[in-house]
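Hypothesis: this fold can be encoded by more than one sequence.
Test: take the structure tokens below, design a sequence, compare later.
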């Protein structure tokens, strides 16, 4: 019996080591893919023909937030894997305890919020009601862009106020914890809000507005078919269809679908931890470790996917990306020619 148990523990340890190796490479791959995607997304969405749509403004700021997440959350995780010493230096500071945790609370919530507002905007645009469509405009978008981070900053304000470094007699390092009993309650509520919003509320809202967009598109299509005989009515409905910005809607719907799928493992893991459903038997524990690792990959994929979805689903986005590439290429050629054949401005 003892030999069997030792053998099982040996298999579990070997499997866990393999998972750690795969995880270290996967995190680096996600970081590289995410950084390239975020940078190209920001460059493309800044183009005039795209940024005139309120939805694209939300996409732009979501990409900026994703870029920050890449360089804070994922980059720090890579440092943890490959250089634990630097990790200890960063995480043992009071600055990280208060400000670092504060930022890592705000950024994912901001990213989810901007995607939700993008889906709300596309729902407004897809409506056949002209009064509803008027709510989709750049003025309201700018207000939402500014107000949203302020709200999340206020909701997460308990972190820098209550968190502090405390020495633990059981270990040599200090721990970042909430110091008072009331602070612990705020910390638990804050963590619950964070997981609930990103894991359940955001996917639910994205699902609801995604279905509403599809319903409005179906109604619009039926209305077009019913009035095809009347050219004036057909032109009017066609103009409505143009305002719906089909490229943006397609980009959004695909992104919404993948966001919901990628968030499922996170909410399952949270429910297991919250209701203390962990098993300490070897095989279920190993399965939980594997599922937890894959769930973390899916969570980070949420912040890596936007550019690749936009490129695959929208010819407008691809056209703008090619235009930007040609502009950069042309600019580099001019710089090269100017460097090789400098213009003598003193002639004449």
């Amino acid at each position: 019996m003892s030999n069997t148990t030792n053998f099982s523990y040996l298999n579990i340890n070997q499997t866990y080591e393999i998972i750690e190796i795969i995880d270290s490479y996967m995190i680096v791959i996600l970081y590289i893919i995410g950084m390239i995607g975020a940078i190209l997304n920001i460059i493309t969405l800044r183009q005039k023909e795209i940024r005139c749509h309120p939805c694209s403004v939300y996409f732009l700021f979501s990409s900026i937030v994703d870029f920050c997440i890449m360089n804070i959350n994922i980059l720090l995780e890579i440092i943890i894997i490959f250089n634990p010493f630097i990790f200890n230096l960063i995480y043992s500071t009071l600055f990280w305890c208060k400000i670092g945790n504060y930022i890592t609370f705000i950024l994912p919530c901001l990213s989810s919020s901007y995607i939700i507002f993008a889906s709300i905007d596309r729902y407004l645009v897809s409506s056949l009601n002209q009064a509803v469509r008027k709510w989709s405009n750049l003025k309201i978008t700018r207000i939402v862009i500014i107000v949203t981070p302020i709200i999340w900053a206020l909701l997460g304000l308990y972190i820098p106020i209550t968190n502090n470094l405390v020495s633990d007699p059981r270990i040599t390092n200090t721990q970042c914890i909430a110091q008072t009993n009331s602070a612990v309650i705020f910390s638990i509520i804050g963590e619950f809000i964070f997981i609930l919003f990103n894991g359940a509320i955001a996917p639910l809202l994205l699902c609801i507005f995604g279905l509403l967009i599809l319903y409005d598109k179906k109604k619009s299509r039926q209305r077009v078919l019913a009035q095809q005989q009347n050219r004036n009515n057909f032109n009017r409905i066609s103009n409505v269809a143009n305002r719906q910005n089909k490229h943006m809607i397609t980009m959004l719907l695909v992104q919404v679908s993948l966001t919901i799928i990628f968030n499922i493992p996170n909410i399952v893991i949270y429910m297991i931890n919250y209701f203390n459903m962990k098993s300490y038997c070897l095989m279920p524990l190993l399965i939980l470790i594997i599922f937890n690792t894959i769930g973390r990959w899916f969570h980070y994929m949420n912040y890596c996917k936007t550019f690749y979805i936009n490129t695959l689903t929208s010819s407008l986005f691809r056209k703008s990306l090619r235009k930007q590439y040609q502009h950069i290429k042309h600019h580099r050629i001019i710089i090269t020619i100017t460097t090789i054949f400098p213009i003598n401005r003193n002639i004449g």
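Residues 162 and 178 are 5 Å apart (CA to CA). The domain at 9-226+238-322 is CATH 1.20.1070.10 (Rhopdopsin 7-helix transmembrane proteins).
Hypothesis status: open.
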